[in-house]
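Saturday, quiet lab. Running sequence design on the structure tokens for the scaffold JK sent over.
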């Protein structure tokens, strides 16, 4: 029997990928322990407003690092580029295009490569999305987190449910080739009913993908300190598990 088995082919070369951290946010959410720099609400450059000087300085330094990083001999060209943060949609499209171009020159970019950019509601409109697409972005990941204003406020998000709806309308209007949205399960102020309504609205928006993350209390965050002081009302473990189960059922059905 062993002799009759087909030989196992050698593994193909893994796809090469680049993750680019753009660490700027309007403000830091209460649950976040990522390395980010809060710019303030006046720094969301939607209607052609320029980004603060610290963004230009960071992008210039990032480009120097790309140029100083030697490509691996024989490595395939990049199959994916992912701009994460932070809120990458606070970085002007022209700067994102410069980074894409530098990565392509240094490491190559495969035909059909996926270039993703995380974007938060309230930091872009359809024109800005179109500019990102002209810069090479072909996938957007939208940080909705919830369609419930009480949950968004409790989490310290810088956008409202109305902002989220406007953002998704802009993504659809611009005809983005691929886009997804993120939700967070287990936030304060969320009931079974409001969570179910958020899932239903996310599905109805028609994204190509939905990611659901369970809230994690990271040490040193405002949420962790509030929880330790007994000042944070979160769903208990059973309720959180039930919400995740609801998500699984609804998303599978969709």
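Result came back. Writing it out in full:
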């Amino acid at each position: 029997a062993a002799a009759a088995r087909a030989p196992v082919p050698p593994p193909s070369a893994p796809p090469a990928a680049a993750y680019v951290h753009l660490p700027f946010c309007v403000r830091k959410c209460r649950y976040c322990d990522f390395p980010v720099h809060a710019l303030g609400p006046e720094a969301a450059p939607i209607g052609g407003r320029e980004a603060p000087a610290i963004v230009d300085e960071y992008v210039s330094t990032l480009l120097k690092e790309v140029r100083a990083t030697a490509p691996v001999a024989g490595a395939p060209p990049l199959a994916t580029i992912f701009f994460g943060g932070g809120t990458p949609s606070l970085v002007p499209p022209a700067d994102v295009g410069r980074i894409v171009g530098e990565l392509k020159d240094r490491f190559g970019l495969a035909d059909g490569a996926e270039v993703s950019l995380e974007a938060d509601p309230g930091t872009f409109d359809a024109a800005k999305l179109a500019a990102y697409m002209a810069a090479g972005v072909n996938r957007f990941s939208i940080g909705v987190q919830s369609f419930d204003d009480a949950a968004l406020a409790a989490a310290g998000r810088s956008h409202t449910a109305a902002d989220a709806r406007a953002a998704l309308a802009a993504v659809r209007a611009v005809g983005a080739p691929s886009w997804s949205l993120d939700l967070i399960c287990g936030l304060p102020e969320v009931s079974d009913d409001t969570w179910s309504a958020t899932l239903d609205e996310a599905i109805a928006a028609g994204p190509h993908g939905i990611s659901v993350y369970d809230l994690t209390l990271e040490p040193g965050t405002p949420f962790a300190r509030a929880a330790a002081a007994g000042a944070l009302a979160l769903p208990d473990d059973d309720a959180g598990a039930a919400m995740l189960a609801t998500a699984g059922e609804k998303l599978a059905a969709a």
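Notes for JK: The longest strand covers residues 109-119. The chain has a mean pLDDT of 91. Ask whether to fix the surface positions before the next round.
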